[in-house]
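hiii so um. not sure if this is the right channel but i have a protein structure encoded as tokens and i wanna go backwards to a sequence. like what aa goes where. can anyone help
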């Protein structure tokens, strides 16, 4: 058997010592940071600070920032709470003070839909949360608009009439009233089946105040404010007294409602949440401000061809065009809050929507 010589043993010892020397130094350096009798763990008390906690483990508590490692739930936060658990762990040969949030179990969650039954009445809605979606447009009978005073001329030579300008207006004036709204017609709505008119829709373009009476039918007014360029021919109506409480209490209509969306106040062809729409039902159907309606999308019309499949070819050809159309049920796509009611029409703001709403969608009882 071959024996090891003293020379080979000595060389092996030197080689092993060389390999272990850096680890010994690293361990010695790491160990020199820790107290010899540091605890296996420490529970943070009410009046503890990070420095006092570090003094339980470190020779120099001032070095805590180099060794501190918060738990994942704390992120980069270097704060501690009563009940937190502090332990020493060696990571890559260096000691770390690991902070674990006491009593917290970390669980990864994924988004889920939760359905909650509506146990009480519809909650009240603060006015300031939706008022910016309200329109200042107005619905009036055609004869009221036609008989209203109108702007005939600006007093200055300005080509554009705006805020601060003075104008002459002519017409049949109400006996009392100095403050007027300036309107321009944007829509006209005939009644169902061409029977009369539901009214005309007016856009508010500005506000004016009477300055002086020039003749029986002629007055001078100053434009207090304008939303857009004011034109000769724009009509003047007494300012609408629309008083809204600071809170709207939603309610169900007192009668059956069967209406439709007939116009939108935005410039798009569709409307979504917090847009205003105009429907063809109003005070005559007992609608009041605060009523909630469901918006339904009409169901598609289809031809039931099931019975035709049992017929011969010539019978099916002869039956083309004689099948009866079948309308599928409508489906709910959102809700509408009524906030401005006229005789035959109402404005409402869309509270919820699952898809875009269009002219022709139904407004019905919830």
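sure thing!! here u go:
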């Amino acid at each position: 058997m071959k024996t090891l010589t003293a020379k080979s043993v000595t060389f092996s010892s030197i080689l092993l010592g060389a390999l272990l020397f850096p680890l010994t130094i690293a361990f010695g350096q790491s160990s020199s940071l820790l107290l010899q009798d540091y605890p296996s763990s420490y529970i943070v008390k009410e009046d503890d600070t990070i420095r006092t906690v570090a003094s339980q483990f470190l020779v120099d508590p001032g070095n805590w920032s180099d060794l501190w490692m918060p738990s994942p739930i704390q992120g980069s936060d270097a704060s501690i709470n009563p009940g937190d658990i502090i332990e020493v762990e060696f990571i890559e040969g260096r000691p770390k003070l690991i902070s674990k949030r006491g009593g917290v179990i970390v669980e990864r969650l994924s988004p889920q839909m939760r359905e909650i039954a509506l146990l009480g009445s519809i909650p009240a809605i603060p006015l300031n949360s939706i008022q910016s979606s309200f329109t200042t447009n107005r619905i009036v009978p055609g004869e009221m608009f036609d008989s209203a005073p109108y702007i005939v001329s600006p007093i200055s030579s300005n080509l554009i009439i705006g805020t601060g300008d003075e104008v002459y207006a002519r017409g049949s004036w109400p006996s009392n009233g100095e403050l007027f709204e300036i309107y321009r017609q944007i829509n006209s709505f005939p009644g169902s089946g061409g029977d009369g008119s539901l009214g005309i829709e007016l856009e508010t373009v500005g506000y004016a105040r009477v300055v002086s009476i020039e003749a029986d039918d002629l007055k001078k007014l100053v434009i207090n404010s304008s939303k857009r360029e004011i034109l000769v021919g724009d009509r003047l109506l007494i300012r609408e007294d629309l008083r809204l409480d600071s809170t709207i209490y939603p309610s169900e209509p007192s009668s059956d409602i069967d209406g439709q969306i007939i116009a939108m106040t935005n410039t798009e062809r569709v409307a979504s949440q917090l847009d205003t729409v105009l429907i063809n039902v109003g005070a005559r159907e007992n609608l009041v401000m605060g009523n909630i309606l469901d918006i339904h999308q009409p169901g598609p019309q289809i031809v039931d061809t099931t019975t035709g499949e049992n017929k011969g070819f010539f019978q099916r050809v002869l039956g083309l065009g004689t099948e009866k159309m079948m309308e599928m049920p409508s489906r709910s796509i959102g809700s509408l809050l009524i906030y401005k009611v006229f005789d035959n029409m109402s404005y409402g703001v869309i509270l919820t929507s699952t898809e875009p709403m269009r002219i022709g969608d139904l407004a019905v009882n919830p």
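oh and Residues 19-100 form one domain.
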